[in-house]
Amino acid sequence: MGEEGEKAERGKLPVNEQGNVTTATRDENLKDIFHSIRMEKTPAVINYGASWCRVCNQILPSFHELSKKFPKLSFVYADIDECPETTQNIRYTPTFHFYRDGERVDEMFGGGEERLHDRLWLHS
């Protein structure tokens, strides 16, 4: 497998029992995920949060549950403290970025399970 294939594989993590969510654990990992989103043109949503953020912690279980309801979307969680270089432009947590055909097409700030569900439905 070439370098490009290896990078794409690193961006993919196994599905866990909490849903179909990939977790970016460091900047390099999130860069690989961005590369996969651009190359595969898979519809995706990235949830930027932080462990110290109360609203982030409240919406995260719903994010995992919603990943089961929208299997056509790739779900990614990125903690801004674990990926400081790639998330330096994130000003609010949680922030959700929605991707289609490899490009960011929408964003949502803050929590709210119903708001998130509706936005995911729109992009699925």
What does this structure look like?
The structure is a single chain. Helices cover 40% and strands 23% of the residues. The chain has helices spanning 3-10, 27-40, 54-69, 113-123; strands at 21-24, 44-49, 74-79, 95-100, 103-109. It has a 5-stranded mixed beta sheet, with helices on both faces. Helix 3 (54-69) links the parallel strand 2 and strand 3 (74-79). The longest helix has 16 residues, at 54-69. Mean pLDDT is 88; it is low at 1-17.
For the biggest β-sheet, the strand order reads 1-3-2-4-5
The chain-level structural class is alpha/beta
Oligomer: single chain
What is the distance, rounded to the nearest whole angstrom, between the alpha carbons of the first and last residues? Answer: 31 Å
- Count of runs of 4 or more consecutive helical residues: 4
Main sheet overview: 5 strands, mixed
Envelope shape: globular
Q: SSE string, helix = H, strand = E? A: HEHEHEEEH
The whole-number mean of residue pLDDT values reads 88
**Percentage of residues in helical conformation:** 25-40%
The beta-strand count equals: 5
Share of residues in strands: 15-25%
Low-confidence segments, given as residue ranges, are 1-17
Radius of gyration: 13 Å
